[in-house]
UniProtKB/TrEMBL annotation:
This is Lipase. Belongs to the AB hydrolase superfamily. Lipase family. GO terms for molecular function: hydrolase activity, acting on ester bonds. The active site is at S184 (nucleophile), D354 (charge relay system), H387 (charge relay system). The keyword Magnesium does not apply. Keywords: Hydrolase, Lipid degradation, Lipid metabolism. It comes from Quillaja saponaria. The keyword Cell membrane does not apply.
Length: 411
């Protein structure tokens, strides 16, 4: 039931973004040779494996991988299905979450519906990635999350450092090329890398759910207003370098956005993602126990640039000298989607009700892929799906995940 009562809107904003605060613990950098041992010991009792996987009867391993720029990322491995069996020689799959989320994205639904568990039960060797800055990936070789430099990155660095580190690690551990699944920001990371002809030699295929390359026609009222009003830039200017959705600074800004005409925050998830068709209310409760997760304010600025300008380029410093310093040219380089090799197997699924991965923007991406080999590109449109349905819909198994797994088996 909708209401125009501002206080009710604000209460829901705080509820949505604030509940996660009580469950979030921050891990700080430990500058000793025992960092890996100490973190893995902590993860054994307070990690994703113990909290979300083992309780359902699945084998789970905690792993750490260090990026070239010093970020220590948490990864989880589900090597076999619930029925057990021998690990090894199973095809590996890496699951990469989206913005303001972490690897728990793929574990929110019951085991018989969650993609990570379904893949494991179907004979795949499943790996979960967690990007820098999220709850279980807050370590660094020399910095702590309290240092501004720790947050000096955008999704460019996720493409340059996080994605190669995790994919290379899985490849080295398994000795096999892997399949990739990305949702939202996880698709942008992959597409940007593919456009540079990076990582393709380590991959068998990629499945992209709610694909984002272009964002200029995004209809999400919250995201659109935040971008148009330079909210991330304002937060960065006043010294908020960590964009924590449950942090007081971000909540205060969200309150102001929710007062703007045309922004109805009485259903905040819908205001952000579009009207999801198929979420069981209990799933939202599970979601709030673990999400949302922090990211860099600079990352939010980069995404805002994409929304305002309709471009897909590297981070724009809005200063020719700064851009030249970083890129050797006065404007940021473009990620050219037409450069993605036409013979690389891609599975794309997008929703007609998605306010973040808007259909018009997806069509721009598909236009860039128009010369892709016919048997190497599978495109699925779900008219009733919005952004969160792809990771939380109770019917996603039969509608999206089963076709996705069938695609993998053909590659």
């Amino acid at each position: 039931m909708k209401t125009s009562n501002t206080s009710a809107s604000i209460t829901l904003v705080i509820l949505f973004f604030g509940l996660a605060l009580t469950t979030r613990t921050k891990l700080f950098s430990v500058k000793t040779q025992n960092t890996t041992t100490a973190v893995l010991a902590a993860a054994a009792t307070d990690g994703i494996c113990s909290s979300m996987v083992k309780k359902h009867g699945y084998t789970c391993e905690e792993h750490l991988v260090t990026t070239q720029d010093g970020y220590i990322l948490s990864m989880q491995r589900i090597p076999v299905g619930k029925s057990g069996g021998m690990a090894g020689n199973k095809l590996p799959v890496l699951l990469q979450h989206g913005l303001l989320m972490d690897g728990i994205t793929w574990l929110l639904l019951p085991p018989q519906q969650s993609l990570a568990f379904l893949l494991a039960d179907d004979g795949f060797d499943v790996w979960l990635a967690n990007t820098r800055g999220t709850k279980y990936s807050r370590q660094h070789t020399s910095l702590t999350p309290g240092d501004p430099d720790y947050w000096n990155w955008s999704w460019d660095e996720l493409v340059k450092y996080d994605l190669p580190a995790t994919i290379q690690y899985v490849h080295d551990q398994t000795g096999q090329k892997l399949h990739y699944v990305g949702h939202s920001l996880g698709t942008l990371m992959a597409l940007a890398a593919f456009s540079k002809n990076q990582l393709l030699n380590l991959l068998r295929s990629a499945a992209l759910l709610s694909p984002i390359a272009y964002a200029g026609q995004m209809t999400s009222p919250l995201a659109r207003n935040a971008a148009d009003n330079f909210v991330a830039e304002y937060l960065y200017k006043i010294g908020i370098y960590e964009f924590d959705p449950s942090g007081q600074g971000v909540i205060e800004v969200l309150k102001k956005i929710c007062k703007k005409p045309g922004v109805d925050c009485t259903n905040l998830l819908t205001a952000f993602t579009g009207k999801n068709c198929c979420l069981d209310p209990s799933i939202v409760t599970v979601f709030l126990e673990h999400e949302p997760q922090p990211t860099a304010t600079k990352n939010m600025i980069h995404l805002s640039q994409m929304i305002r300008e309709g471009t897909i380029t590297m981070y724009d410093y809005k200063d020719e000298k700064e851009n030249t310093k970083h890129y050797g040219q006065p404007t940021p380089p473009i990620y050219d989607m037409t450069s993605i090799p036409n013979d690389f197997p891609l599975f794309l699924s997008y929703g007609g009700a998605d306010a973040l991965s808007d259909v018009k923007d997806v069509k721009l991406l598909l236009g860039s892929l128009k010369d892709h080999e016919g048997d190497k590109l599978v495109v699925q449109e779900r008219d009733d799906y919005a952004h969160a349905d792809y990771v939380m819909a109770e019917n996603a198994q039969q509608d999206v995940y089963d076709p996705l797994m069938a695609f993998f088996k053909l590659q």
